[in-house]
Structure formats: structure tokens, C-alpha cells
Design a protein that fits this description.
Elements: H1 57-71, H2 77-94, H3 97-110, H4 116-146, H5 152-205
Amino acid sequence: MLCVACGQDNPDGSKYCAKCNALLPQMAPTGPPGGESLLELDENTEYPRPVGRYVSEVMHALTWAAHEFLEEDGELEPLLDSVDEVRQRFTEFKESIPTILENLADQQANLPEDPYPKQMRYLNTRGVQLYEEGLTLVDRFLTDLEGDSAEAETLVDGINKILDGNDHLCLCIELTAIRVHVIQRELEKIEVEENKAELAEAMAATGGEGAPQDEPTAVPVDSTDVG
């Protein structure tokens, strides 16, 4: 089980990396998710879920702006700016979704027994779903704010959903990085074995090790011999 942080190969069943102590993301709680009827879920597939927050500058700015506005009587402008930044990042990411899903579908067709494509499709689709639900709640709060009917809980719920969506997408990216690393290592092993086989064939063809050798020419015995 490879650690995406340092590349350490850990024993199966490990929760933390033995080298750098990073959480191994594939050990996130698994099982058929509940309450997600819009997703095509396979009851025989275990679906990974995030176990912690993925911290980023954008997400930190959003949560801090919301805290300042709700708890510290802060200004609205920083919150609006943070929401706009999150929305822009999410919109840019969504443009890549069709390609991501197409690639996963191709992998599923070629490797029907491999759970990885289903797991990544779930994380990606669920992450987008949570993001959109969160932004909808935040927009509702901002609209209600204009009519003095906004409830703080609506904003909090919206931001939590955005954070959850971000965690799902980040976990998807992390597991994909691990997958790519594993594949690269396997390809390197195959390449090494192929190179060894080619070298052995070349040596055999050119009289290298293992090829028949000519007998050495005998040295004539003369009077200078001491034997």
C-alpha cells in the first residue's frame, strides 16, 4: 500500500505510513454510501470516503470569512469574494469532468473486475454533487440576507457541503496519483525484465556466456620447458 506523500510501500491494512506517518487515503471508511440515490452504486463495491479535511488556501479563506461574518460582525465583502473564488475554481474543474468520466468508463470496459474506476467515478460524482448543493445553500443565504430573513445555519450547512465536496475530489486526485505511481513501478519492472531477456539473447547470439568456446591452442614443448 503506497503512501502518496513519500512513496513508502506499507503493509496491507496499515492506516498510517510507517515512514512519514501520513494517513493512507485508501484506508478511508468504505461501504455502500447512503442517501445518494442519484449515483449508480454497486452493492458489491466498497467506496472510499474522506476521513479528514484537505486544507487549501481557498477553502481556508472561505471558512474564515464565514466565521468573521457570523461570529465577529465582520464585513460581507470578504465572504462574497471567497464564494466567488470557490465558484470560479469549481467551474474550471467541471470543464474537465466529461473527460474524466470518459476515461473511467474506458477503464471499466477494459477491466470489468477492477473496482478502481467505479470508486473514482463515485468520488468524482459525489464531490461535484456536494459542491453544487453547498453553493446552492450559500446562494440562498445571501439572497435571504437581502430580505433580512437569512439563517446562519444555512450558510454553515452550505460551507460544510462545499468542504465535503472538496474532500471527495481531493481524495479522488490522491488515489489517482497512487494508482499512477503503482502502474509506473510495474512498468519499470516489466521493462527491466525485458531488458534482461534481450541482453541474454544478445549474449547467446554473439558467443557470450553460455555459448560454446573453442579449445585453446596448445603450446609446443621445447628444451626451455622446466616441466
